[in-house]
Amino acid sequence: MTPFTAEAANPARPRIAHDASCRCGISRRKFLSGAAAIGAATLSAGRGTAQAKPQRIDVHHHMLPPKYVGERLAAGVTAGSAAIGQWTPQRSLEQLDKNGIQTAMLSISQPGLKFDDIEGTRGMLRYTNEYGAGLVRDHNGRFGLMATLPLADIDGSLREMEYALDTLKADGVNLLTSYGNRYPGNPHFDPVFEELNRRKATVFFHPNMPACCVGLLPDVPGPTIEYQFNTARAVTNLLYTGTLTRFPDIKYIFCHSGGALIPQIGRVVRHATENKKIAAKIPNGPWAEIRKLYFDTAQASDPWNFGAARSYMPITQLLLGSDYPFIQVSDTVDALLKLGMSDADLRAVTRDNALRLFPRLRTA
Q1: C-alpha closest to that of 61 among 23, 39, 93
Q2: Are 328 and 95 in contact (CB under 8 A)?
Q3: CA atoms within 13 A on the CB side of 261
Q4: CATH topology for 57-363?
Q5: I need a surface site. Which of 99, 143, 147, 158 has the fewest CB within 10 A?
Q6: 70-87 tens-digit pLDDT
């Protein structure tokens, strides 16, 4: 490739000869060494040195408001209890600064709530959403909010969506992969999905313990395996029920590089194609719907998870997610840096893809 020069940009401009006696500026050697230093600094900034201005966007970052923590513990949700007890907004900000992260999109993890307690759940989620909105307001540009909806409660979800998106100015909403024995593609939830689609909303799905499998392996903590499989169930359910096709303007984010969907994707696609009843609900084909989803890297930024997801998902659909405070942010960021991605791909995963979902962060 011919290097760019001022003469190349403007052929009509007379060519000026430079030699050792030229007094018009710095020497060629000094110029090249300076340019190399600038280039190296720019590359380091893109890969997140401590000196660089934070650029990355973490789409999977948990907040643990005090009243909510008390509710979780009272409900017996003890998974990650050490991390729960240590979280503060200031510690989140310290993690962002240490890892070159501009903005973390806040959400709550698996709610320690009894969804059959309608008023109690509505009140608690209103509290957590207002708490998160306060952090966004008080720390300009450092936080975003994925407001949680009580999806099992249709009226409550529609009401909270309106308040969160219109009044609190949340960046999107947070749902679980299942509610009791219902998965998100169940027609019961259609009124909520219709409104999400009308708003072209971004929806972050966090996995939870499925009703089918609580205590199934008493020696294995639920999040170790069941979270991953419940993500696979939710995606497959949304695909097979035609929900992804019927509500195409929703932007869907799923955790952990797709969880257990990764090794099952061939089976999921094949059965969706071979079964005429299912195929009729997916006129664009299963791959067209799957490749519109977004996957984050939380606890899955290693070669065998993230690498597998990259083999069938466009780089444009992969997002940085840390799962802090249950996992240190550096665990995810450092693993991504070791994957050998090009600078363009690394920037896409850690920033540019998220900017398409959350364009306000361009000016944050």
Answers
A1: 93
A2: yes
A3: 31
A4: TIM Barrel (3.20.20)
A5: 158
A6: 776 666 655 555 666 689
Return d(Cα 241, Cα 280) in angstroms, integer.
Answer: 10
**3-class SS shares of the chain: helix, strand, coil, % to 5:** 50, 10, 35
Alpha helices by DSSP H, the chain? 6-9, 28-46, 66-74, 81-86, 89-98, 118-138, 154-162, 190-198, 222-240, 243-246, 261-274, 276-279, 286-290, 306-312, 329-337, 343-347, 353-357
CA 312 to mean position of chain CA atoms: 18
Within a 10 A sphere around the Cβ of 265, how many other Cβ atoms?
A: 22
Please state, in angstroms and rounded to a whole number, the distance separating the CA atoms of residues 62 and 326: 8
Q: Are 202 and 251 in contact (CB under 8 A)?
A: yes
Average model confidence (pLDDT) for the chain?
Answer: 86
Contacts of 198 (CB under 8 A, 6+ apart): 249
Cβ neighbours, 10 Å, residue 209: 21
Q: CA 182, CA 177: separation in Å to the nearest integer?
A: 9
Q: Is 332:322 a contact under the CB 8 Å cutoff? A: yes
Q: For residues 188 and 192, give the distance between their C-alpha atoms in angstroms, rounded to a whole number.
A: 9
Contact (CB, 8 A) for 265 and 312: yes
Residue 179 phi, psi dihedral angles, 5° rounding: -135, 105
Question: For 292-349, how does the pLDDT look when each residue is reduced to its tens digit (9 = 90+)?
Answer: 999 999 999 999 999 999 999 999 999 999 999 999 999 999 999 999 999 999 999 9
The answer to whether the peptide bond before residue 283 is cis (omega within 30 degrees of 0) is: no
* 124-181 pLDDT tens trace: 999 999 999 999 999 999 999 999 999 999 999 999 999 999 999 999 999 999 999 9
Q: What is the pLDDT of residue 77?
A: 58
104 and 136 Cβ atoms separated by less than 8 Å: no
